[in-house]
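Minutes, project check-in
Item: structure for the 161-residue chain
Input as provided by the requester:
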Amino acid sequence: MTPEDIERITATIDGIRAQEERLVLPTFTFDDAWAIGTRLVDTARVRDLPITIRIVRGDQVLFHAALPGTSADNDMWAERKANVVRRFGQSSYRVGLAHERDGADFLEYAWNDAMTYAAHGGSFPATVAGVGVVGSITVSGLPQADDHALVVEVLEQHVGA
């Protein structure tokens, strides 16, 4: 990896960290999950995006939707990405990029089982002000940077609403 690649990845990681710090929710209720989830569905339908959406608080799935063009594989990807957020308390994209930047294969570590974790973009921490990370908002079906960007876009709309 070139120094330019490392610099580019580091800048992306810094940007994601800033998103995580900025996109803090006042609450993360069933209604919040529904509002975020339906906004993701509506956005995906308008853009004809083949995505699966999974919104989790703790151990409970509060929202799940699969749109045309997805398969059960997307369900498994979404769960595995959400597991990364749950374990690390950071966006799955950020975790994956940090490993890439450091020259480490995420799955090389025995405790990062490929059947449980996917350090690919698309799962974002649901962080509540004064509490911390309580869950995740996940999209699967697009290239990882696009999955991540879609979740961030909708969270920005939700937080700003």
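Outcome recorded: Residues 26 and 129 are 5 Å apart (CA to CA).
No further action items on this chain.
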